[in-house]
Amino acid sequence: MISTIDPRIMTFETASLSPNDYKSQVHPIWCPGCGDFGVLSAFYKAVSELHIPTERLVVASGIGCSGRFPAFVNAYGFHGTHGRVLPLATGIKMANPELVVVAAGGDGDAFSIGMGHVPHAIRRNVDITYIVMDNEIYGLTKGQASPTSPVGMERKASPYGTVETPLNPLLIALASGASWVGRGFSSKPKELVELIKQAIQHKGFSFLQVYSPCVTFYDTYDHFKEVTKPLPADHNSRDRLSAMKYAMDEQTLYLGHYYVEDRPTYDEGYAAKREMAHKENYGVPQILSRFTR
Amino acid sequence: MPGSDLTVRVGGDSAAGGIVTTGEVFARIAAYAGLEVYTTRTVPAEIKGGHVMFQARIAPEAVWSQGDDLDMLIAFDQESIDRYSALIRHDGILIFNSNDSKPPAPNGIKQYPLPLNDLAKSINFQRGRNIITIGAMVKLFDLPYETASAVVEKQLGRKKEMLEQNLLALKTGYEYIEQNVTKAAPYHLSPRAGAEQEARLVLSGNQALSIGAIAAGCRFYAGYPITPASDIMEFLAGEFPKIGGTMIQAEDEIAAIAMALGASFTGLRAMTATSGPGLSLMTELMGHATMAEIPVVIVDVQRAGPSTGMPTKVSQGDLRISVFGAHDDAPRIVIAPVSVEDNFYQIINAFNLAEKYQTPVIFLSDQDMSVRVQTIPSLDLSRVKLVPRELWNPNGNGHGKFERFKDTPSGVSPMSLPGMKGGQYVAEGLEHLPSGEPDYTPEMHSANMFKRGRKIRSAAEVAEEWGMLERFGDLDAPVAICGWGSTIGPVREAVDRAAAEGMPVAVLYTKMIYPLPRAEIAEFIANRKAIIVPEMNYTGQFARMIQAEFWREVISVRKYGGTPFATHEIYAEIKKAYEKVKPARRATTSQRAVKSAKQKTARRK
To answer: What pTM was computed for the model?
Structure first.
């Protein structure tokens, strides 16, 4: 009589599609030379190599230049409101764990307006991949300092230079207990493809910071080329303290896979509770009987 | 002698504990004994400390409001005596804790001391004062002792040793009255013949709503704790895992609605519930849901504001934010139940409307009906009909690329769900083309504004068919009441009383607040001499909406102190309206009214 409405179709085959097949018909509106192009290309390649069917892939985003990401991908997309990509992606993944859910954001979306959601998505260990394209500036609003901008940045909204210390995204992720942490650079496409693949394959919350320079308002290509370096070979990605140590280095910005741990995902954990609570032949009439005189 | 129904109030300090439990358990005993019960409570927003009041109105027939005067006051402390003894009817009684308070100066009402602390000490159970009180009340109301002990066992019997103590406390209170109060049981109420056999539910509005949501197929809930909506989250946290649903306690209300939208995007029926402050936080994503045409149900259990306001007091002040709270025009559906029972039926309508029109639906409950425990008739599950979301058919004979936001005659565009091959699109918060691709042209924005507005306006068409208009009273009367929400209870009683005195009133309650069912309301208000619009807010939000929509003067009756209307307050407004109206047709209508009132009284006897 009363049945759950669940029209979701959940049979997926693996796909053999080229990176080009993941391109949508929408042409990116980013400035020529924007680092986000590098991230997008690496993303096409990564999902192609992982054989993810386009109908099974969901790309969610908030607001900012990064927010346009879903429009350029041939997949399901959710272009939400500023800072809210993580709870949106959490809802999508928890409602249908069969989907591959990727959240795309920028440094303002993640660490300013959306900061309240970051540690919670991490502690839930929702099985999603969060790619933060970090350009250390607000680009879409034409150049204001962001939470990752260096101290003293002079812009229209900070004509005498900023006073605030920048946040360290990797330390936030590691301290909050992210089960997979990595850092890439849009100008290192080969390494970036590998990182995105690993992040998507990881069961649990994957936090991937990608330096993605803004050519128009804060061109940091040369700076990052100079100060970035692969993580030393002796770094053990199961060692959280070692990951934190390398993440704290502000002179050399290490790129690569920082940390991984195995922990039940949010949907697995919740499924276990469902199993614990499950009742046969249980529904509204049975619930009502508890309240019946 | 008291009338056909009895109102009893229990007051005390919440630090002592158990006031609300006392009331709730007693209400349940009365209900199990075959009586109808309607409860009210005011609690402080603090967890420990502060005055608490619990009131139960008990009658053989259904009652619709909390009751104006007290037949019995049970005062745990001096403050309760000071606050409420003036409300006791001249033939009512006061039972006071003689260990903690002094009786008021004699004023004619009967006073019975109940040495609660001593009685508790005598059975070595300091925390048993509330159950002792229940025992005393059971005897005073002459309710069957076996029913009382069965309820105590059911409600408080989780731990065996505790149960024994509780049952002993019940007996102690019962026997104290038996031995010390002459003419015991001065307040006997007999259930209607056969009432014990009739199925009755004892439910709060939040419970009725939660069960209704489950019946409506809701399987995803995300919420953030807030008084007085948290019960919904807690209820579903217990039930959803049993039936394959998901309940997430989010980090804030913004995350809660975001999660619900994400879940709905995948095809689940999703809900969040909050109160005023949380609704304020949700407004941005409510606009997104309108823009991206995503079904979602947002429950707002209204409490007094603005700001933190009075978290445990009732208000109907969120009508405007529900209808208009958005940047630019973001049409959505707003509905409001009128009672505990109606919470069940209207939440099902809320889900069906959300799915049918692919829109956020705001469900305006209020503190009073959400926490109130009441007896209601069995719920009619045959009335539960699920209206599905219109989905895109991947195997249909449509050619070309799927267009998620393609305009249609109804304005509703078939939706694809993640997993459907060929249905890929972006749920877009930017203005967009039918495909979902961002587009900022004046033509597209105008066309979409029209599409989204037209779609919502057309929802009023289902209001009558889906039982969202409730009419009663004398529908030909010159004086009418047009209202919304939980004010219906005191209105019902005031209208009965006025009719019996030759002042018939026509009543319409609309449960669809936006869009307003225009045709039905226009027809109802036409040719009335006076239209009273009672509501619990300062500016008369609904009255002004009616005035703006229909260009019609109304009598806006507002109460905004944080307590529900009393029957006599509504009655006084009817009387005032009749003094102004020079009725041409008065004789005939009032004759009819007197006749119908007599019939009603006869039925009651």
So the answer is: 0.93
B214·A120 Cβ contact <8 A: no
Q: A interface mutation test: which of B242, B378, B415 has the most A CBs within 10 A?
A: B242
Separation of alpha carbons A178 and A205, rounded Å: 6
Residue from the list A26, A71, A91 with its beta carbon closest to the beta carbon of B260: A91
Q: What is the pLDDT of residues B486-521, one digit of tens each?
A: 999 999 999 999 999 999 999 999 999 999 999 999
Nearest chain B Cα distance for residue A233, angstroms: 38
Q: Rounded CA gap, B255 and B272, in Å?
A: 10
Phi, psi of B323 (to 5 degrees): -80, -40
B263 touches chain A (CB under 8 A): yes
**What is the β-pairing status of strands B469-473 and B505-510?**
antiparallel
8 Å CB contact of A292 and B201: yes
Chain CA centroid to CA B157, Å: 29
* Local structure of residue A68 (DSSP, 8 states): G
Helices B340-357, B205-215: axis angle to 10 degrees equals 40
Q: How many CB atoms lie within 10 A of CB B248?
A: 27
Q: Do A55 and B438 touch (CB under 8 A)?
A: no
Question: Which residues in chain B are closer than 8 Å to A95, comparing Cβ atoms?
Answer: 220, 246, 262-268, 270
Question: What pLDDT does B1 receive?
Answer: 36
Half-sphere exposure for A115 (CA within 13 Å, toward CB): 12
Task: Tell me which DSSP letter residue B154 carries.
Answer: H
User: Distance between the two ends of chain B, CA-based, in angstroms?
Assistant: 16
| Greatest alpha-carbon span in chain A | 76
- Nearest Cβ partner for B258 among A5, A87, A288: A87
List Cβ neighbours of B166 (8 Å cut-off, separation of 6 or more).
B128, B131, B152, B156, B157
Q: Does B379 touch chain A (CB under 8 A)?
A: yes
d(CA B34, CA B44): 31
CB-CB neighbors (< 8 A) of A284 in chain B: 211, 214-215, 381, 384
Q: What angle do CA B209, B211, B215 make, to 5 degrees?
A: 110
Between CA A79 and CA A81 the distance in angstroms is 7
Quick one: which of B85, B24, B17 has its CA closest to B52? B17
| Contact criterion met (CB < 8 Å) for B256 and A87 | yes
Complex prediction ipTM: 0.96
Q: CA torsion angle for B111, B114, B117, B119 (degrees, to 10)?
A: 170
Q: Which residues contact A25 (CB under 8 A, 6 or more apart)?
A: B437
Quote the DSSP letter at residue A231.
P
Instruction: Name beta bridge partners: B532.
Output: B481, B555
**Who among B264, B429, B437 is closest to A81 (CB)?**
B429
DSSP per-residue codes, B71-110: EEEEESSHHHHHHHGGGEEEEEEEEEETTT--PPSP-SSE
Per-residue model confidence as pLDDT tens digits over B367-381 = 999 999 999 999 999
Phi, psi of B509 (to 5 degrees): -115, 125
Question: Rounded to an integer, what distance in angstroms lies between the CA atom of residue B11 and that of residue B77?
Answer: 7
Under DSSP, is residue A145 helix (H, G, I), strand (E, B) or coil? strand
Q: Residue A72: CB partners within 8 Å, gap ≥ 6? A: A23, A24, A26, A27, A28, A40
CA distance B316 to B535: 7
The enclosing H or E element of B345 equals helix B340-357
State phi, psi for B276 to the nearest 5 degrees.
-40, -60
Residues of chain B below pLDDT 50: 1-2, 184, 584, 586-587, 604-605
Asked whether the beta carbons of residue B260 and residue A270 sit closer than 8 angstroms, the reply is no
Q: CA B587 from chain center: how many Å?
A: 37
